[in-house]
């Protein structure tokens, strides 16, 4: 657990990502009275936002506090995964699994130091699998219900975090045939309890359903958009996945004959969840770390038992290569770390200067518009958004969102500042947004290469 924390400490001051800052901003708006999934819009469930809302009270919700929670969460996931591995395979595999997960499994290339939904949901998923194993050992229905409830909690942090619960349900049917149907149904029913409560307590079920389900079908799943584009995104993410999961995978393969069925199913469903997301963001791969670490622990123990020198050399070379590309980042500046880990997010280099300008040239209570992304700027500057959709993909995929943004810019109450992180044409090639900027706004500054506009 200490290693898991230490692996993340060098990145405590790395700039907040758009997701981290965006979730924190939604939580802040929610705490100030905005209606979730209406005025405070996000396509993530309440469980994740409750965690971010709680963090608003820790050191004022600072970036360092969010990163510290990520380190603690990483340590807890290591601990629970070790207990799961010990129950399934013994103490030596559990020790190897914990060591591997807390070091190479905490690679920055899969954004393991960020407070992501995947990392937070992994704790509940691993805990649900532990409860299921206790049910198998003791035949106590209470543990089966606990496994289901924890699966539901995992899904309320990240919709795709059904992996452990699905693995348990399939395991029951696979091993017990007809006798496994009833307990599997009990587990699934228990998993739906937290989800049903979340849906029932939402201000509007229609808005909740759209954000949780319909939006995913429209925009972010493997079944939407161009298959060629999805394949391109998968190829782009492979280098990060190799650096984050490569050593774990090689260790796991070394003992594939001894893989327990439950561990295989867990990894299979975690992999399916990553692929199903469609976008192949690097942080998606964090969901695969716990089940892969379990199998890596078993593989490492098998290599030790058989004294398989050749395969051990392969693993050692991969480990050395991983350390070689990771270690320099420990000593880099936060800006240099962001350049390496987030090459597709150049705004992270300018966020500090932009936030400083926004704070100096607006008053608390005034609203701004970040065009078209970088949701973290709202949170870091302490200025509310003038438009409810804060992510590029939201505006791109939600029907009518772009028109709503144009009406906001051209309306009687324009934002106090427009921060041009992206060009108007990157979202609106028709030129209509650019014409609104030209007629209704004037450029008042260029901050670290980012144009800032104010109403005329």
Structure characterization notes:
With 456 residues, the chain is mostly helical. The protein folds into two domains: 2-330, no CATH class; 347-455. It is 65% helix and 5% strand. It is built from 21 helices and five strands. It has a five-stranded mixed sheet with strand order 2-1-3-5-4. Helix 17 links the parallel strand 1 (367-370) and strand 2 (384-385). It is globular and about 75 Å long.
Low-confidence stretches: none
The major beta sheet can be summarized as: 5 strands, mixed
As for the number of domains, it is 2
Helical run tally: 21
Distance between the termini: 55 Å
Q: How do the strands line up in the largest sheet?
A: 2-1-3-5-4
Number of strands: 5
Give the SSE string. Answer: HHHHHHHHHHHHHHHHEHEHHEHHEE
Q: Indicate the proportion of strand residues.
A: under 5%
Proportion in helices: 55-70%
Rg: 23 Å
> Any idea what the shape is?
globular
Q: What is the element layout, followed by pairings?
A:
Blueprint lengths: L1 H5 L11 H14 L14 H10 L7 H27 L1 H12 L14 H22 L2 H15 L7 H14 L4 H21 L3 H14 L8 H27 L7 H17 L11 H18 L2 H22 L3 H8 L5 H15 L5 E4 L5 H6 L2 E2 L6 H6 L3 H10 L6 E3 L4 H4 L4 H9 E7 L2 E6 L1
Parallel strand pairs: 1-2, 1-3
Antiparallel strand pairs: 3-5, 4-5
Helix pairs in contact: 2-3, 4-5, 4-6, 4-13, 5-13, 6-7, 6-8, 7-9, 8-9, 8-12, 11-13, 11-14, 12-13
């Amino acid at each position: 657990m200490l290693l898991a924390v230490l692996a993340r400490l060098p990145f405590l001051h790395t700039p907040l990502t758009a997701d981290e800052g965006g979730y924190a901003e939604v939580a802040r708006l929610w705490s100030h009275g905005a209606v979730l999934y209406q005025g405070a819009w996000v396509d993530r469930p309440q469980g994740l936002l409750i965690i971010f809302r709680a963090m608003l009270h820790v050191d004022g919700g600072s970036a360092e506090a969010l990163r510290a929670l990520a380190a603690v969460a990483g340590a807890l996931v290591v601990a629970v995964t070790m207990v799961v591995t010990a129950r399934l395979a013994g103490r030596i595999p559990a020790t190897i699994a914990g060591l591997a997960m807390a070091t190479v499994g905490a690679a920055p290339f899969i954004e393991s130091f960020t407070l992501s939904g995947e990392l937070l949901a992994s704790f509940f998923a691993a805990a649900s699998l532990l409860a299921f194993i206790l049910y198998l050992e003791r035949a106590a229905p209470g543990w089966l219900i606990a496994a289901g409830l924890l699966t539901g909690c995992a899904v309320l942090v990240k919709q795709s975090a059904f992996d452990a619960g699905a693995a348990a349900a399939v395991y029951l049917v696979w091993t017990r045939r007809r006798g496994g149907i009833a307990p599997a149904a009990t587990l699934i029913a228990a998993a739906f309890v937290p989800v049903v409560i979340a849906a029932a307590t939402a201000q509007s079920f229609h808005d909740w359903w759209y954000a949780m389900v319909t939006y995913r079908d429209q925009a972010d799943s493997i079944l939407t958009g161009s298959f060629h584009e999805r394949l391109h995104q998968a190829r782009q993410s492979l280098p990060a996945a190799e650096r984050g999961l490569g050593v774990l995978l090689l260790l796991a393969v070394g003992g594939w004959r001894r893989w327990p069925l439950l561990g295989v199913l867990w990894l299979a469903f975690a992999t399916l969840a990553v692929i199903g997301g469609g976008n192949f963001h690097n942080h998606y791969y964090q969901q695969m770390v716990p089940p892969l670490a379990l199998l890596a622990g078993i593989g490492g123990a098998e290599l030790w038992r058989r004294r398989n020198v050749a395969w051990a050399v392969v693993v050692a070379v991969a480990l050395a290569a991983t350390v070689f590309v990771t270690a320099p980042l420990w000593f880099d500046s936060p800006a240099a770390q962001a350049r390496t880990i987030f090459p597709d997010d150049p705004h992270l280099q300018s966020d500090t200067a932009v936030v400083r300008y926004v704070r100096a040239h607006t008053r608390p209570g005034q609203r701004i518009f970040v065009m078209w992304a970088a949701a973290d700027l709202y949170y870091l500057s302490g200025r509310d958004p003038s438009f409810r959709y804060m992510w590029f993909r939201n505006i791109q995929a939600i029907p009518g969102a772009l028109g709503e943004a144009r009406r906001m810019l051209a309306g009687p109450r324009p934002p106090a500042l427009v921060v041009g992180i992206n060009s108007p044409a990157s979202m609106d090639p028709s030129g209509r947004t650019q014409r609104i900027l030209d007629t209704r706004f004037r450029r008042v500054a260029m901050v670290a290469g980012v144009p800032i506009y104010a109403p005329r």
